[in-house]
Design brief:
There is one protein chain. Helix content is 86%, strand content 0%. The chain is built from 9 helices and no strands.
């Protein structure tokens, strides 16, 4: 009996801790968004974060998208050839890239790169008392550090996903024409005829949400880090892990909203 009670008590503590953390993150996000609606705004901090996300993340997102499209075309051919459905390869590639793989893989790559960078930068400022120094200088840390990053993440990720969609489809086209024997015009026509505007729109909505989540998790864990260098390292790890989990969970929720029958 005691074993069962101890288990239930541990489970209850875990659930309450999860709810408390979710509430803290929600309040942090609400406060950060509220500062976007009130002056002053710091365009320099916004542009810095925007360039960091949209430009410096471009190589890793581009490589990921190209090779994903190439692998997807190869795997689709090996499966569809068993049923004589090779002509559907272009359709599968463009549908998978625009709806799912483009935004999800770009989000995960940016989470590993930008989420960790935001957490490390803000965490270092926190443990070295630079955040408190901003308050002393009459500068709101949420308005200066968090709000510009939230806006930059939300606006930059869709641009990255547009590039990822184009390069992912290009990767499938390269394999389809160079290795699988498709005509270039035939492959491109099949891609354009099958692709629907809602496929691209849903991917861009996911991208905006994922960009916000990455910026939010990186800022939240960095802002609340404690304990010197060890605390900054823990905050960086937590930012990447929580961003990745939320991206995968929200991917299902958004897909359900757009395409559930």
């Amino acid at each position: 009996m005691n074993v069962i009670l101890n288990f239930l008590a541990s489970l209850g503590r875990a659930v309450l801790g999860l709810c408390r953390r979710a509430g803290a993150i929600a309040l942090f996000a609400a406060e950060g968004l509220s500062h976007l609606l009130r002056p002053p705004f710091y365009p320099r901090m916004f542009l810095r974060a925007f360039v960091e996300i949209a430009y410096f993340s471009l190589p890793v997102v581009s490589l990921t998208a190209v090779f994903t499209g190439m692998v997807l075309a190869l795997q689709s051919y090996s499966g569809f050839s068993r049923f004589g459905a090779e002509s559907a390869i272009a359709n599968v590639v463009v549908l998978s890239i625009t709806r799912e793989l483009g935004p999800v893989l770009a989000g995960l790559m940016v989470a590993g790169r930008i989420g960790a960078a935001f957490a490390a930068e803000i965490g270092t400022m926190r443990v070295t008392d630079q955040v408190d120094a901003l308050t002393t200088l009459s500068t709101n840390p949420m308005k200066y550090l968090v709000a510009p990053r939230l806006l930059a993440g939300t606006l930059a990720m869709p641009l990255l996903v547009v590039v990822a969609d184009v390069l992912g489809v290009m990767g499938g086209w390269i394999i389809g024409t160079a290795k699988l024997g498709f005509g270039s015009a035939t492959y491109l026509n099949a891609t354009l005829n099958f692709m629907q505007p809602m496929d691209v729109i849903s991917g861009l909505v996911k991208a905006a949400v994922f960009g916000f989540i990455v910026a939010l998790m990186g800022s939240y864990h960095g802002y609340n880090s404690r304990g010197g260098a060890q605390g900054v390292g823990a905050a960086t790890t937590a930012a990447v892990v929580s961003s990745s989990i939320l991206i995968l969970a929200l991917d299902y929720i958004i897909t359900e909203m757009f395409f559930a029958q």
